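[Q] Does anyone have a clean structure-token version of this?
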Amino acid sequence: MHFGLTEEQQLLQETVRGFVEGECPPTRLRELFDEGKGHDPALWKGVSEMGLAGLMVPEELGGAGLDLLELALVMEEVGGGALPGPIFSHALACLAIQLGGDDAQRRRWLPALASGDRIATLALCEEGDVWDPEGYGVSLEGGGLRGTKRHVPHAAIADLLVVATAGGGFAVLERDASGVTIEDETGIDHSRPIAKLSLDAAPAEALSNANLAVVSRVRDAALVLLAADAFGAAWNLTRQTVEYAKSRQQFGSPIAQFQSVKHQLADMATTIEPARGLFWYAAHAWDREEPGAARDCAIAKAHITDEACNIARAAVELHGGLGFTWECDVQLWFKRAMFDRTFCGTPAHHRARIGALGDW
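[A] Here you go.
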């Protein structure tokens, strides 16, 4: 089977890559990272003007009507540039409303989200590092949400919160609704801040068509996007390390000429490049709702995010003592890879799921 990108998909990636390189070079990225807010309104405006805020939203509701594969290609470039902002969580919230909402609910919320005029986020994880939909305990009773969500991305700036509930459901509420408390959790990746969300009879509306299958499908989409983001980060670290090795002098020669360094650089490249097909195929399977799609998504997430962290460690080593410092840009992508590895479940967790889904 030949699997390649269309000209339109390649153009989409090139456009996003050019935007990231032009609007958020390393100097600007470091400023935003040090600020710790994980959001720049000017960047979000540019992202929205390109149509990325509503990439998977149907065209009739103001979006681009594209598939998860296209969104994953965008996330590869976002991860490669360590672009701050709520693209990941916003896209998942839109997807939850699209898949779980009825026609009236989609028309009410999606147009403003697709244009980027409003920002949304998705709350999945619960106390005890519970990521799987079968274990959620937040309840919606009498129109009020009760419970706690952890590690909610960009909760402080989101206008709309989409919360996964017990039994396989989604509920939508405003960030400033009564009974909503948001506490910063000070995550390691400052480009994607996370927060604890406490809900005490917070007024919310259930998405009419949401069920366990829909919540699981949204979770699986998140796994693909994290894999794509980690892939982009790993390739950027590989390129950075190659350039550093060419310029770093030791014993009168660039360290890139040393055989051991060549081997390490080759290992980094040959480890990550073949993994590209994992998230491509997982997104392809998700889009077509193939029977083994959930397992493909778990495989992509587990393998790519694990290897991205291994590549980040190698990049730190090859940068020598400089690589361990805050001043070295390597730490920006290392922390991004760490976020991608742990968010929505660790590789070990998903490898256990892979076994169960494969009837091992």
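[Q] Thanks! Anything notable?
[A] The chain has a mean pLDDT of 95.
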